[in-house]
Amino acid sequence: MNNLLKEAEELFSYTQSLRRDFHRHPELGFEEVRTSGIVAQELRALGLEVTAGVAKTGVVAVLEGEKPGPVILARFDMDALPIQEDTGADYQSQNPGLMHACGHDGHTAVGLTVAKILAKHQEELAGKVKLIFQPAEEGLGGAKLMVKEGVLEDPKPDKILALHLWNELPVGWVVAAEGPTMAASETFHVRITGKGGHGAHPHNTIDPIFAGSQIVTALQGIVSRNVEPKKSAVVSVTTFHAGETFNVIPQEAVLSGTIRTFEPEVRQLVLERFKEIVSNIAVANSCQVEIELESVTLALINDAAITRKVQNLVKEKYPDFQLITNYQTMGSEDMAYMMGDIPGCYFFVGSNNSDRGLDAKHHHPKFDFDEQALVVSTALMSQSILSLTE
Question: Hey, which residues does 107 pair with through a beta bridge?
């Protein structure tokens, strides 16, 4: 089959119209009622077998090919973020305080366009394609809930694909990298309890701010002194709350933040050292401490064979695209829960255009992307699915 770029370009107005509509009407995780309604309607119009209400607002559609073959799952996320948009675009969010600041509006539109292309090529399709429109990717456990509700069964996928529009790279670039690609993510909450009192009489208090400050500083030693230099980890304290006024040492201080790792052994080391450091510094300062650690998602690991197939497809069918095959990001992705036991490839599609001012980072109030990336994403995902069914 020739490359599908021409078909994706012919459907661009459809993709763009959907993307801009979703952008105007962003919905948070597990609240994507309007979005999922449009998704289900569009998929049913193509004659696909559609199940709505999976994991609250998720949609699953199955397209069966004319020939026997594997089951390929392709996932597209739908949720927005609690951010006030500041792009000034004609299609700016109409929902105050909500914004598609990570490209999921584009992912959803691409998924529906991919469905159109696959339906057109149904006679060439071997096996089944399972299209997943996922709610609540942004830290709320949408993928985990979909798995719990049986999205990986009946039919069980043999291979998995997913993509992300990526403003870290210009439009026309593609990342398909083997192995650990996105990090495992933990959140932590630490409550340090001391003894409050007058700020002028610190000797009569047990200062939780002093203890907390030592903890923040000492935690940075985990990555610089405990993790092997050739490996990666992040320990970031992102909130520190204590006290209400200038002359009172408070009773408690609360810290929270995130831990990111790729390898399981590094993750175990970092978590153990985290607990040791926090507990021992609290004891050294005569404070009580409560530590809460929560796993948000696993590391996302791309299967070597499937990823090489996507890489070769880019080289052979889309030689004008710039391909990166060695890449990691400390960002996390709950798609890892679907790819835990099923081989897959999660690839990135460059989407920024600095010449047009479309280069704000993800989760920023000015985030927007070059919509030509929708064409690249549609063509590459459609072609990858068809290639994996051969």
Answer: none
